[in-house]
Fold this sequence. Notes:
The protein is α+β, with helices and mostly antiparallel strands. The chain has helices at about 10-20, 35-45, 50-65, 90-105, 155-165, 185-195, 200-215, 220-230, 265-270, 275-280, 285-300, 320-335, 345-365, 370-380, 405-410, 420-440, 445-455, 460-465, 480-485; strands spanning about 1-10, 30-35, 75-80, 120-125, 135-140, 230-240, 245-255, 265. The radius of gyration is 27 Å and the shape is elongated.
Amino acid sequence: xxxxxxxxxxxxxxxxxxxxxxxxxxxxxxxxxxxxxxxxxxxxxxxxxxxxxxxxxxxxxxxxxxxxxxxxxxxxxxxxxxxxxxxxxxxxxxxxxxxxxxxxxxxxxxxxxxxxxxxxxxxxxxxxxxxxxxxxxxxxxxxxxxxxxxxxxxxxxxxxxxxxxxxxxxxxxxxxxxxxxxxxxxxxxxxxxxxxxxxxxxxxxxxxxxxxxxxxxxxxxxxxxxxxxxxxxxxxxxxxxxxxxxxxxxxxxxxxxxxxxxxxxxxxxxxxxxxxxxxxxxxxxxxxxxxxxxxxxxxxxxxxxxxxxxxxxxxxxxxxxxxxxxxxxxxxxxxxxxxxxxxxxxxxxxxxxxxxxxxxxxxxxxxxxxxxxxxxxxxxxxxxxxxxxxxxxxxxxxxxxxxxxxxxxxxxxxxxxxxxxxxxxxxxxxxxxxxxxxxxxxxxxxxxxxxxxxxxxxxxxxxxxxxxxxxxxxxxxxxxxxxxxxxxxxxxxxxxxxxxxxxxxxxxxxxxxxxxxxxxx
Length: 521
């Protein structure tokens, strides 16, 4: 979500522009989606015209005119909040929640412990580039005649937008740098993919492969071998002045004749695919560490001609007896998740990472190009992205691991009608994914929940049709009551009185000198 902050001194000019046709006639059905309680109650969400916009501006401007206070640089604070075009559109109710949380955290409302600023949030359709967005207009003179702080308002707006992206399941901007979770597509990558005849960019293809290999591997050495087995090129990054300590890794698609090789670090693909994060799920013993170093050294010597040092279980197809065992593992994990606090980010991230890995492994086996299974894996993987402050799990007992499922799914049949065993495992994986969806609904991350619901719905019909029908299989595309509440229905209650606050210019002793920018008086 992209915030754009500007300052001015003409509320009337701003609001008539927002209610008008726009520079390219792009404004449609301008209306309020939120505002301070009195303003929004009086003007509602009816379509704005010029006269109504000017009336709203006069009401918002009343504290400044009543107290005769001026603010250097202008008393009108304006910020647009915009989504990327590919994210689609939010409902008015969703924008209403976002606007209220944004102005609360910016310190413009009574949530700050001070008198409120008068404000409105206006929506008037998509931008000329197709971006869904709203405009927030704030009078920086509070209702008691004091001035709201705008100290570091640009950086604060960026930080709050980042928080709201996470809380509402919105797409995280690539410009967030190290805060990026799932990495974005770059123009050069798209051009290269088109030149190669690929429908997806290299980073997406590699993210699926690495996720599947990591989920299917019981140790680091097997991870290196599985990457090679999947046809990608891999190389280690050794610690400084060492050749026995691997600090990271890079992967690449095998270059076509005449192409140069393009490397992607694990962290470039996704935050949870860095080597330190992957190692959290593998044993840390002298034997396993030495075996991993041996495989890394072998691929470092000649990445394009790597041969495994010690081939392992990845060379053998799992026996049929493992289908029941791994299906029971997934069912046990699903039962454990029933008792996990929805706010326990680390535990849910662990479950999402393993479930995503299973879908990625199945995609790697069945889909030549990343398709519905890969999309389900990538969507679930967003839940696995954590910042350092959220990395420590709250759970007192470990979750049931389903890492073996990925190795099993990697060997699933590539053609014909699936088996009953496949169908049973698929159903349990879908139920686990549904639990992750319900967690997002419970913490009011409706957009993220909707993304998971969409990924598990009609897009996976091609997979379902090749599997036998099982009695009692639930419809994973159905919405839960929590999602219905979060994505539809009335807008949330607004704090404050629906009646305008009486203004008393004699009450405060307000200085008439112009203060420094950003200082509260």
